[in-house]
C-alpha cells in the first residue's frame, strides 16, 4: 500500500511527509491545514510535491501556513515543481530532488479569450516584445517609445491584465528573497534573477545540478530513497491518470495525503466539485455521478 511506502520514506528521512499532487491554488490551503493539524508536533516536515504551477500568491501563503507548524521544512520533488511550485520551493530549507526532478522559471501569465482560443500570454513574452521593440519600454513609458506597448494593448491584452502581471512580478521581486532567507550562500536577489529574468524559455527546466549552481540547497536521495519516491509518485500518477495529457482525465483531479490524516482528493463531477476527505461521502459522490 502507498501509505506504507510513505511511512518507509518517513523513517529513512526521519520526517513527517505530506504528499501534494495538485495545482497551486487558494483552495489548497484549507485541506492542507487539516493535514498539518493532524501531525503531532513534527520535528521535521517534508512536502512531497508534484505541481505544474498555479497562483504565485498561494505559494507565499503555503510557506507561511507551514511555518505556523514547523520552523523549517524540506521539499521532495519526484518530477516537476514548476512555476508557482518553484516559488514555493524557495521557502524550503532543502530540496530532495531525483534525477528527473526539475524547477522552472517564474513566468506570470495573462489569458486573452479573444485570440488563439484563450491562449495564455506570458509576462516574459510581453516584456521581451516591448524590450526588443523599443529598447526598454515599461508601463510608465510615454511618447514614441510607448507605441509597442499601445500596440500590444490594442490588439492582444487588456491593460488591467498587463497591470496584474506586472504587480505579480513586483510581488515576487519583493517577497521571494524573504522565502530564501539563510537557506543559500548566494544573495537571494541573484537567485530570484535566475528564475525570473534570465534568458530562459517558459518551458525551460532547471534540473538539480543547475539548481545547485544557482545556489539553492539541493540534496540527492539515496538509491533506496529514490526508489521509494518513484514508487509513491507512480502510484499517485496512476490514480490521478497524470499520463493523460489531453485534459480529459477522470473525476480525480488532485490529491493530498499523509499517514496521520489519510487522503484528501479534489474531484470534479456533475454533482460535486472540490476537495473531499470523508471516505463514505467520497464514495457516495462518485457513485452518484
From TrEMBL:
<dbReference type="InterPro" id="IPR002825">
    <property type="entry name" value="Pept_S49_ser-pept_pro"/>
</dbReference>
<dbReference type="Pfam" id="PF01972">
    <property type="entry name" value="SDH_protease"/>
</dbReference>
<protein>
    <recommendedName>
        <fullName>Serine dehydrogenase proteinase</fullName>
    </recommendedName>
</protein>
<dbReference type="GO" id="GO:0016020">
    <property type="term" value="C:membrane"/>
</dbReference>
<dbReference type="InterPro" id="IPR029045">
    <property type="entry name" value="ClpP/crotonase-like_dom_sf"/>
</dbReference>
